Amino acid sequence: xxxxxxxxxxxxxxxxxxxxxxxxxxxxxxxxxxxxxxxxxxxxxxxxxxxxxxxxxxxxxxxxxxxxxxxxxxxxxxxxxxxxxxxxxxxxxxxxxxxxxxxxxxxxxxxxxxxxxxxxxxxxxxxxxxxxxxxxxxxxxxxxxxxxxxxxxxxxxxxxxxxxxxxxxxxxxxxxxxxxxxxxxxxxxxxxxxxxxxxxxxxxxxxxxxxxxxxxxxxxxxxxxxxxxxxxxxxxxxxxxxxxxxxxxxxxxxxxxxxxxxxxxxxxxxxxxxxxxxxxxxxxxxxxxxxxxxxxxxxxxxxxxxxxxxxxxxxxxxxxxxxxxxx
Length: 327
Description:
Strand content: under 5%
Order of helices and strands: HHHHHHHEEEHHHHHHH
Distance between the termini: 70 Å
């Protein structure tokens, strides 16, 4: 393996083992860094000392020629920057040439967030027995739970209550174990990005939904001969109790989209939409921005501040409707 290849693998190993990055993050960085190393090989760059900012710009130019978007190019540049930052700290290079390359300017696309009334309408409909709808078979991919979409009303209500009521990420939701539910403290232990832990409040409606799910979850596990998982296994299980029984993020996405569409929400609704709705609606009701940051598990306040942009439309409507000089 070449010097560049060895340094790339060393960086990726550090991400996985020292920083505790998620599998998704490691895969994304691996793809970008290895592709850049392959480009340098085609350009016959002998070692890392010969890599300059012009080579990085040339690589971005090649990405554009292949039809990739500015978003894809920015993602590649971010990975290369992180790689060179690591090499600089390790003393492999004197400086980071990627810092001399400007990030492509991206259009700001703010996600459409359903109103509080729209979300409450969906949640209220799920409170009824069987309200989540009947099963629909979707044979896509190889998930153990590939056939379930809105097939278990009590579980599917919990999915909506926790995504919207607690502002969790999809990966955080499916990672919850029974031991993470702190009934006495009315909180749930959540493991976020980089394996960072935080507690999120277990609201009244979410707690009600959880208590309705647990007896059915226990009965299904016992019927499947997996009683050992009743008190310590994953909170959200797949319908057929296959493998470790844990529901996948892919299935959560299908369940959310299926129920959202059946209740008249937009076709682009997905689990992260409910997380955005949590932050936006909390802000609209006067919640402190730093409190929202803590609940969402954002490392930087600037990330949370995106939600102030999401409420600009509402502010404009209030101004237009109430200010005498706006009429």
